[in-house]
Design brief:
With about 220 residues, this protein is mainly alpha-helical. The protein contains five helices and six strands; from the N terminus they run H-E-E-H-H-H-E-E-E-E-H.
């Protein structure tokens, strides 16, 4: 079992590099077939408003972003495994699985977009957005299930007090007066959704960046 888990972890670790390097090799082989200009962005009505040109940054830039994200997530993974009580190791391993599933999914998406946007098949946001949502949702759901199983394992071992209030991907504890609580996997804090300010704070965290992005977009459109 341990050997099988190690093999799975190793596969998840290196899968993003396989996706990115495979896409880079394909783009390199077909570089001369790439058009001089292609669509990379659409507005809310589906009208194209962003293009990329054939150049090293234009062709391989998205893959570079994917590589950067992989490095960041792997650093987070190494920190994750090095912290926390020994009793919470199953939870840290489950969080590690979630991180690496997300890394694999995002880099796969970047690899697909890097190839299909310039070379086809050419599809619009009506296809790209749902596919992107599915690719993100799958690892989040799978990781959430893994974390819930790990929490049950910790409780079964008699360490329930260490994970009181934690429920997979969220925290909710009416007996905890804190709004912000540390994440079990390390690396920051999460919201106590039993706190009276939980939903107003969550709404602000979601809506304020959206409002800022909308304002910037409208300002750019006027110019």
């Amino acid at each position: 079992m341990v050997e099988r888990q190690t093999q799975k972890s190793s596969l998840l670790t290196w899968a993003p590099l396989l996706f990115l390097s495979g896409s880079a090799a394909y783009l390199s082989a077909r570089y001369e077939d790439i058009p001089q200009r292609w669509i990379v962005h659409w507005d809310a009505t589906g009208t194209a408003n962003g293009w990329m040109t054939r150049s090293i940054p234009g062709v391989f830039g998205m893959l570079g972003v994917g590589l950067f994200l992989w490095v960041v997530l792997e650093v987070m993974a190494s920190v994750l495994l090095s912290r926390g009580a020994p009793e919470l190791l199953p939870v840290r391993e489950a969080n590690l699985k979630l991180l690496r599933l997300v890394s694999a999914s995002v880099t796969l998406l970047f690899g697909i977009l890097s190839v299909t946007l310039p070379l086809g098949p050419h599809v619009g946001p009506g296809v790209i957005v749902p596919c992107a949502l599915v690719l993100v949702a799958i690892p989040v759901i799978a990781g959430g299930i893994a974390i819930r199983r790990a929490l049950r394992e910790v409780r079964a071992q008699g360490h329930g007090r260490l994970v009181a209030g934690y429920h997979g991907l969220h925290y909710s504890n009416v007996d905890d007066a804190r709004l912000w609580v540390p994440k079990l996997g390390g690396g920051g804090y999460t919201i106590n959704f039993s706190h009276r300010w939980a939903w107003p704070v969550t709404a602000a965290l979601v809506l304020l960046p959206m409002a800022l992005a909308l304002a910037v977009g409208l300002a750019a459109a006027r110019h």
